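Dear H.,

Thanks for agreeing to be a second pair of eyes. The structure we're designing against is below in token form, covering all 184 positions.
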């Protein structure tokens, strides 16, 4: 039973770490990256649809991204969604078939803003991991009547180790992203 609780907590914590890494990928660095556009939702026939489902993304140059919609009627909606995306600073150009998105150079001030955003996302991920830990600890406490107190204490120690390992993964990913953002 304790192993089940720990296994479930580990799986959930790993999902929180993966979500944090995906969030980090959506924060822009000096280069154009198709992952920047993964979380952009386009109003397609009134339904918010991820951009990746509506168009292919290509990266022909360091600061340029080419968006080729599968349905040409969605061009204007895609262009508007890209323009309205906060913290991107992109300027899309629509030629009737494709959209070219040129990302401006990052200033030192803008880089520091992005570092703050990434740190905030990392803290959200740490909070998610701690919430999983709290739920698992409550589950372990509920087992006290069925298994011995020593077993529960051992399970809690193991839970702390698992939590620390996942928080360290988030911190390591944060460190890499900060270095990438501050690199000129």
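And this is the sequence the design step returned. I haven't edited it by hand at all.
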């Amino acid at each position: 039973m304790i192993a089940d609780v720990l296994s479930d907590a580990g799986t959930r914590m790993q999902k929180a770490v993966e979500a944090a890494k995906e969030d980090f990928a959506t924060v822009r660095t000096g280069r154009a990256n198709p992952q920047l556009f993964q979380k952009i939702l386009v109003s397609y026939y009134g339904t918010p649809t991820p951009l990746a489902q509506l168009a292919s993304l290509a990266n022909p140059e360091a600061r340029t991204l080419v968006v080729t919609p599968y349905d040409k009627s969605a061009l204007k909606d895609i262009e508007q969604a890209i323009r309205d995306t906060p913290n991107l600073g992109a300027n899309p150009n629509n030629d009737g078939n494709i959209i070219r998105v040129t990302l401006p150079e990052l200033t030192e001030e803008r880089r520091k803003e992005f570092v703050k955003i990434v740190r905030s996302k990392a803290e959200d991920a740490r909070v998610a991991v701690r919430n999983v830990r709290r739920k698992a600890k409550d589950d372990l406490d509920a087992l006290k009547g069925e298994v011995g107190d020593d077993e529960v204490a051992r399970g809690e120690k193991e839970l702390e180790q698992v939590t620390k390992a996942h928080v360290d993964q988030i911190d390591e990913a944060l460190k890499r992203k900060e270095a990438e953002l501050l690199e000129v």
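Two observations from my side: The two ends are 51 Å apart (CA to CA). The chain has five helices and six strands.

Warmly,
E.
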